[in-house]
Design brief:
The structure is a homotrimer. Chain A is α/β, with parallel strands linked by helices. Chain A has helices spanning 14-33, 54-66, 88-96, 111-118, 134-148, 166-175, 195-203, 235-241, 249-252, 281-301; strands at residues 44-49, 70-74, 101-106, 123-128, 155-159, 182-186, 207-211, 221-224, 258-260. Chain A folds into 2 domains: 9-133 and 285-301, 3-Layer(aba) Sandwich (Rossmann fold); 135-284, Aspartate/ornithine carbamoyltransferase (Rossmann fold). The first copy, chain A, contains 10 helices and 9 strands. In chain A, the strands form 2 sheets. Chain A has a 5-stranded parallel beta sheet. A 4-stranded parallel beta sheet of chain A has the order 2-1-3-4, sandwiched between helices. Chains in contact: A-B, A-C, B-C.
Chain lengths: 302, 302, 302
């Protein structure tokens, strides 16, 4: 497996995805063993966060430190040379000489790709605006594999903001690599799944349908999303749709399904749902660690 | 000793306090040996600072790193998911899956207790508003033990802001667990020790008195406090009392006592006092490291 | 070699400089070996950045972590006790008890020297205002040594902001310790090299001349500088001189010289120059790591 960078889930095929999920399982076993691991002893990960994202940053740092490696980085554009007018290319060239691998989060689409053109070490895209966040997609797939037992043949429902939700778009693409997937999109009219995503599914012959209300008959995986205030140019629009697509006990009780959410969530899931065995969103967040460990290991082995 | 979390000094009895002080002494010896310690090799401490406190954060990080462990965390609420509306409970559930132990500092009273209800790993309260800061109290006790040679039977004077001073309140409670303690409270009228603290002392039969001026006859330990501007709703009130209770050479020269201060200080101690052998406030700050090492070790062993 | 602190390049003589450069070469070999190094195992570096400087901070952190050590610190004055009125002396006394060595960056001249008076561990000046930044000077010298093959006898041209450029002033002083150096200062009238620097060179019999245009005949080393907006009280003055002293292909093609720049740069070097073998500014940035490793090692060995 030859993987120099991890920029977009679209750059990797099913074979690479399966390899990463397999490696993730080994990493999960390492974590459960509670042993001090030295795989990355002497190695440095740089976490360059031009946009705050505590959860993603801490997950990457945890992954690297669990592997015995070290981390350098910044969490805020305010304290960087960017403020002195430095280009992203220059920053990446400099950091390439400090670190063995770089995870970058940046508000602009395409910035991680651009970074990979200047880097002499592997680049991991930890989110570039509304574009890609491939490690999230891989941990989503890993959660499905671990908690449903398979990915092929699953019946998944995405609920909420399907228009702006980057994680939904990337996961749809990744699922289209698998066999016999059925997707149900459940959203208000103004947050429907974009046409490009639909085209992508049609091209791969992935079965899907769209609904305007929550209906989970036959569903194996419910993928909830936060309706993000910051995505809305109009606050009235936000106020109207929030809460409309809220998951409650009656939707999921006694159903053989798992509930996922990329987190953070606000009020789109009734807190009583948290205690159901179906609720897997915190497990999903945990799975981010072994998946990122696997990605660090695979990229650094190349 | 069964200690799951360290939320309040009031949760632990004399036996636990003595056990922590004993373990702290072992940790201090480890530090003096200058050897690389591997007790926490492979373990991760999360420092979640929702409110800035460089000294406390660096002391915890030093403790963990001196034990051979790693640290993840944030120093500022601005860059966290909290800004996206996430509850403290959700953050704690997520971080519990990243780290082996969590130190939390939060501006709201009761937040550390709340965190411990969601955590699946030990929580250490690193300060929750004006409420509790138990590791400070333990390092205060350790300083007394190391520098006076005993805790039972000491004669201690608290000077300055005794109304708002969280460290004073907690230390008073902790001292009331010991025998034959005598406490002198020295403060301006408007910053007198609160009635609840007095009641607590009376309940435990701890001897105390109140004074309006500095008088250190027979005192073993002087505990100075900063008169914190941010505690005063009225700046005029602050201006009037600051400097009134300032410790100078004449108060302490040729007296067999030690001077403590939780730091940072502003101008409540004459700088010439720093050079006296009685001045122990920097030593006290240093003792924060072995005490926090002991707490990390004890909590992670359970 | 007895070096307690590294505050100013003027504190150390040629012998110490050569010793640091020699140790840097060993450190560079260690880095190239890609082995996990344990020289600083169990040791802690504190990076106290009262002023943001991502590049310098990450370079120090990388150096310490490549040596197997740990790092604590802050990146921003906002989250420090300074905001509560603490003096630098008190902060340094406290941090001296946490860390084995301290790198400090501070906006005020003389602050690193002041810090060294309170510290009980070695202090490294990582920049104090427009005054000193000795590790930059040492990495500049190391770059010359490694890329030209020698320091004695070189012919160096400094271009751009020679008035406010701290790195230029310090490097001039350091070069004056070597033999047969020839310096050409190329700058607009309002950014000419200050009289103090000229006097220093004259005292050491270092040959120099001043020019108002770029002319690189016989030059071995071109040292470019950024014309920093923040140094100019008058924005009009800045607008007038920026871009005037821009290095282009025609200045350096087919010439046997190396091009250095302390970075970050804005537009003072044509991007096409980056691909020339003469362009060494990213290499120079990389050399900051082995040089800082050497400095950490030498100071901690004393």
């Amino acid at each position: 497996m030859k993987l120099n960078h991890l920029i977009s889930i679209k750059d990797i095929g099913k074979k690479e995805v399966l390899k990463i999920l397999e490696e993730s399982e080994k990493m999960e076993n390492l974590l459960h063993s509670k042993k001090a691991v030295k795989i990355m002893d002497g190695k440095i990960l740089a976490t360059l966060f031009y946009e705050p994202s505590t959860r993603t940053r801490l997950s990457f740092e945890t992954a690297m430190k669990r592997l015995g490696g070290a981390v350098i980085g910044f969490t805020d554009i305010k304290n960087t040379s960017v403020m002195k007018g430095e280009t992203l290319g220059d920053t990446i060239r400099v950091i390439s000489d400090y670190a063995d691998i770089i995870a970058i989060r940046h508000p602009y689409e395409g910035s991680a790709r651009l970074a990979s053109e200047y880097a002499t070490v592997p680049i991991i895209n930890a989110g570039d605006g509304s574009n890609q966040h491939p490690t999230q997609t891989l941990l989503d797939l890993y959660t499905i594999k671990r908690e449903v037992g398979k990915i092929d043949g699953i019946n998944i429902a995405f609920i909420g903001d399907l228009k702006y939700g980057r994680t939904v778009h990337s996961l749809c693409h990744a699922l289209s690599l698998f066999n016999n997937i059925k997707i149900t999109f459940i959203s208000p009219e103004e947050l429907r799944i974009p046409k490009e995503i639909i085209s992508d599914l049609e091209k791969n012959n992935t079965e899907f349908c769209e609904k305007g209300h929550i209906d989970l008959k036959g569903i194996d995986v419910v993928y909830m999303t936060r309706i993000q205030k910051e995505r809305f140019p109009d606050l009235n629009e936000y106020q109207r749709v929030r809460g409309t697509y809220k998951l409650t006990l009656k939707h999921v009780e006694n159903k053989n399904l798992i509930i996922m959410h990329p987190l953070p969530r606000v009020d789109e899931i009734d807190p009583r749902v948290d205690n159901l065995p179906q609720a897997k969103y915190f497990k999903q967040s945990f799975y981010g660690v072994p998946v990122r460990m696997a990605i660090l290991k695979i990229l650094l082995e190349n």
